[in-house]
Amino acid sequence: MSNSDLTKPPVSDEVAEEPAVAAPPPAADAIVAVDPRLLIREQGLAGYLTEFKRRIHSGDLGSMPVIVALILIWGIFQGLNSTFLSANNLSTIAFNVVGTGMIAVGIVFVLLLGEIDLSVSYVSGLAGAVFAVLSVYHGFPEPLALVLGILTGAAIGALQGFFFAKVGVPAFVVTLAGFLAWNGAMLWVLGKNGTINLKANGLLYNLYNYTFTDVAYAYGLAVVAVLVYLGSSLWQASRRRQAGVPFRPLTDIVVKTVLLAVVSFAAAAVLNQADGLPLCLLLFLVVVIGLDLVLRRTTYGRQIFAVGGGIEAARRAGINVAWIRISVFMLAGTMAAIGGMFLAGQVNSAQSTQGGGNTLMNAIAAAVIGGTSLFGGRGKTWSALLGALVIVSIQQGMYILNLNTAIQYMITGAVLLAAVVVDSVSRRTQKASGRA
Amino acid sequence: MSATPVLALRGISKRFGAVQALTDVELEIHSGEVVALVGDNGAGKSTLVKTIAGVHPIDEGVIEWEGRPVTINRPHDAQGLGIATVYQDLALCDNLDVVQNLFLGREIRRVGVLNEVEMEKRSRELLNTLSIRIPSVRIPIASLSGGQRQTVAIARSLIGDPKVVILDEPTAALGVEQTAQVLDLVERLRERGLAVILISHNMVDVMAVADRVAVLRLGRNNGDFSTKTTTQEEIISAITGATDNAVTRRKARTAEADK
Q: What is the pLDDT of residue A194?
């Protein structure tokens, strides 16, 4: 009896006191100090910098490292050869980004699940070969051949996804088997010759090479991009203000809009100084933005992040984990096939070497260099664009400096290692400051 | 407290092969009541909770929901009735923020697109009514303490508007202050008129928040106590099965003699 007398009163005291004394301040607190970031941000530009520093310190680097790397790379090559930052060279880089970038977008999705797809390079090669054989040998209309080529990629992704999600074979092994098998399939489809030349001025050639030469297109796109960004940011902020939840301060929106305007108008000016706005670049941007919206604004995208963050939690929340996995591998296969079409358009032929070399490494490296985590659950489609820009810039820089590929590979390897180091270290810092 | 229990178990039995995990277990829970389910390891607490949650269908007996018999064969059935379970491993996604976790699997959409504003607003309302203290609803779960994660997991179970909430060892891995937060939250669930089943090994916690304590021993009921009129020792005796032995009989006799 005495024992429980000793233990009981203090406990009930604590329980009785807690809500009366401690609870009201936090409740009030929760309304005023809504978001630690908001408090800092409301101090205007200075507060913005404080917030920026705080994020860097806590390891929340976002796209920072890759942008710094890109500026460094461009600066170094410009120092070594003054034609590097010429409009023509930058325009070439813009064209070359598309093939690798398209494949890398699919890789971003797979990495978000914390998995890897090693087969994308030869899936891209096989899709190009299917297109070539159907359109050149069998007389299929080119649009139909294009669709069938892309569907090949989707079907392969579904098959690999099935073995991974339903049978339980590690994705690494399934796609490694795919890497070999689809290479074989590609060679088999191409037949004895090994190279099929596509029609002169055909569909793939135009998809890759067509440019909107009128300067109005590139500038118009820049204007649209800036206006849409500004409009949607203001609209979001006003919706959030009305709902009484923290919203982005005007300084933040203005700063980011100005940055976007500078970048997009500079890009438009450079492209216009060369040949104009490439169709393939426009398509790539549409894919990146479209899939970015899918990731951030739809239930499906949220489910991908959830599976990447914790399979058990996702399953308990009623998410069909197997379907998410299969569909993501399908998407990776589809994007690989689309990338393969642009790579085939680049040389206007389907070759036995397509998808070989460092196609695979470039695509994975682009996703990782761009800031998508290898550990799953963190990343965005924009990393495919930024990462591909870095890789293609190195290639192009080496090319105009007349350095051989040996050095190019070593440098690309070093950049990839640096990217993974940044990823690992920032993850550790985030853990230390409790943000991972 | 309503007359009809929101959930009543009558003569529940459950076998696993040769093991009789539960025998003729009775349990009643009313709205606005916290019932602690205690017992030694292997007493059948988890099995009983899993039969209610629909993980293991019962072999014999009747489960009554608001007075009428129901069958619970799948977790989905239990959720449909309004039974939410928070398991010991909280099953939150570390990379998602608080709002995203709260609404995971039940996202609010507007013309097919996630309605982040509405979800954030409702999350803040829910957390405020429960007086849950969290620095921001937009920080990843990974940056929260163990107690904060537990409160988020409990808050998450409330999104579907359940009538019965089952908490499996909610304070097992928590420090003193965090335990206090979770116990406060349990009391707030009761204030909201929910029926709470609380599994715990910690007698102090049980005595602090529970209205009744149901003891299981070797798969059978071994006492149902009101915390107001019971001592901790009586409950522990019921858990260990020491209610009737030489020591307790002698104690009872000396107590009588003292009078």
A: 84
Q: Which of A79-88, A279-288, A343-352, B173-182 has the lowest mean pLDDT?
A: B173-182
Is residue A11's pLDDT more than 50?
no
Q: How far apart are CA A167 and CA A161, in angstroms?
A: 9
Chain B nearest-CA distance from A26, in A, is 6
Segment A276-294 shows an average pLDDT of 96
Helix axes A359-369, A382-400, angle to 10 degrees: 120
How far apart are the CA of A6 and the nearest CA of chain B, in angstroms? 11
* Torsion region of A235: left, alpha or beta (phi above 0 gives left; psi -120 to 50 gives alpha): alpha
- Cβ-in-10-Å burial (0-12, 13-18, 19+) of B220 comes to middle
Domains annotated on chain B, with CATH? 1-82+163-259 (3.40.50.300), 92-161 (no CATH)
Record the tokens describing residue A111, joined without a space. 């990495």
Output phi, psi for B42, to 5 deg: 80, 10
Q: From the CB of residue B77, how many other CB atoms can be counted at a distance below 10 Å?
A: 16
Provide ipTM, 2 decimals.
0.80
Q: Which domains does chain A have, with CATH numbers?
A: 61-213+275-432 (1.10.3470)
Residues of chain B contacting A11 with CB distance shorter than 8 Å: 204, 207-208
B189-243 pLDDT, tens per residue? Answer: 999 899 999 998 888 888 889 999 999 888 888 888 888 888 888 888 888 877 6
pTM greater than the 0.90 cutoff = no
Residues within 8 A of B (CB atoms), A 122-181 only: none
A301 token code pair: 């995208």
CB-CB contact of A89 with A400 (8 Å): yes
Angle (CA) A56-A58-A60 rounded to 5° is 60
Q: What's the confidence (pLDDT) of residue B247? A: 61
Cβ within 8 Å, pair A246-B138: yes
